[in-house]
Amino acid sequence: MPCGFLGFVLLFPRPTCRPDEFQCNDGACVHGSRQCNKVFDCRDQSDEAGCETENECEGPTKFKCKTGGCIGAEKVCDARNDCKDGSDEPAECSYEIDPATSTCKAVSGSGPTLYFTSRHELRLMTVDRKEYIRLIPQLKNAVALDVHIPSNTIFWSDLSLKTIFSTRIDTASDASTHTEVIGSDIEAPEGIAVDWIHGNIYWTDSELKTISVATTDGSKRKTLISDHLEKPRAITVDPVNNFMYWTDWGEEAKIEKSGLNGGDRLAIVTDNIMWPNGITLDMVNQRLYWVDSKLHTLSSVDVSGGSRHMLIFDEKHLLHPMSLAVFEEKVFWTDIGNSAVYSANRLTGGDITELARDLNHPEDIVVFHTLKQTNGSNWCQTSELLNGGCEFLCLPAPRINSRSPQYTCACPDHSAMAADNRKCVAVQPPVTSPAPIPNVPTTQAPTQPYTTTTTTTTTTTAATPNASTILEPAQVNHKLSGLPTEDEPSHPVGAYIAVPLLVMSLLIFGAVLLWRNWRLKNTNTIHFVNPVYQKTTEDEMHICQNSTQGFIYPERTMLSMDDLDIA
């Protein structure tokens, strides 16, 4: 390489992309929303690489490093960096190791607490069942549930009130402290998940068939996914890697994933699945757990859809499971068929234990512990630009590789992103050209005709209630003054077409009359109707005239058209 060229490279290094941009392998920058959109935006096609990678790890006893590769689960939290990126030694490793099970245990102090909804109330219970209380009583129809541990806040949805609420846990029993987070444009919020790093809340709506996001105070919101959803229900998030996962128990049941900004959507479980109700994520091992109330199973799979494993098949303890949670070596679930809460070993599926019984429709369940929600970087706040430079929402982008964008901007519903991919612009309605009032298209029900009378003419038009019409300036003036309007004169072209047609019709009609008159003078006919077939026939009979005996009807003879001398 010539020295001059080397100096040029040193003086002009590869460009640094913005936090909301993806850097191609050749150094070029494209907007982060173009990563994994099934379109090659980089010249080297690197923006679509690794978007649907399969995990080579097999079975729940394997751990996948964030940079790729697998190690044994026993090497996680062993105070040694077995992964090159050290992802096998996360913050959760400040557990102690349980010598009996060789799994991580929380250090001494407050143990994990279970929160679960039971239709008209929200309860909490310690895993060892030493404490079991009613946290929030007198609810209407509590269903979904999640917690924001850093702020000690709990969120829940009420299916009857069609609302998502929040409150601090230490004041939860006081109804006056309950805050409405989402209370409009929502029908059936059956699943909610809190992004504790970026301060957002995600929820599914099985009636609207959507997945939406909002800030935890509800001030900004957006519909992220609204296509190809049938019955979305449970949802869980990973704000460290910026992914979310949800279940859909529609006709084509499945488990899907996407980035927390709605990008890089992918179905990861599509077969041997019927009614996937609850779903949860083991952050340390990057494995998803879900319950299927139709198949009576509890299963797990890695976040890429590989190494699927059925832990429990039990019609007795999984009669109609609704939700589940994972912490340490345990998995917990609710069952509305048995009106109970259970636990089991998350690796073997054994040691099934009933923790609570005689509950009123137990639905969602979560684990509350300080190590459950790990710390992470919020690039929307650490960036030099406030809110990442976004005018509306700053949403974390999925971490596909080290060159992935940190976030992308999002706009509210019914608006679009401006050219700078940061500001929002209103969506303009389609422009339509003026047209006569009777021809204005409408989506209303079939119209009813009505008649309006003026001093000079009577006009019949179509009533289109609530339909917006486009008026000419002269018509607007008549509307404002309350004066009657005159009909528009017909276009002269219509006369050019109608007059020749009328003349031709008269000529043909006259010719027919002349022919019939000639025929009647030469032939007498009798017509009769066939009452059986209701079909008119014509039999021609010649009538002979006798001056002395009157009319004589001869025998009926069939005549051919050749016998009728008609020129």
| CA(first)-CA(last) distance | 104 Å
State the CATH architecture of the domain at 95-375. Answer: 6 Propeller
Q: What are the low-pLDDT stretches, counting only 5+ consecutive residues below 50?
A: 1-13, 440-491, 525-567
Strand elements, count = 40
Query: What is the highest CATH level, the class of the domain at 95-375?
Result: Mainly Beta
Proportion in helices: under 10%
Oligomer: single chain
Q: State the secondary-structure class.
A: mainly beta
Largest sheet: 4 strands, antiparallel
CATH fold descriptor of the domain at 95-375: Neuraminidase
Radius of gyration: 39 Å
> How would you state the average pLDDT, rounded?
78
CATH superfamily of the domain at 95-375: TolB, C-terminal domain
- Continuous helix count: 4
Order of strands side by side in the largest beta sheet?
A: 9-8-7-30
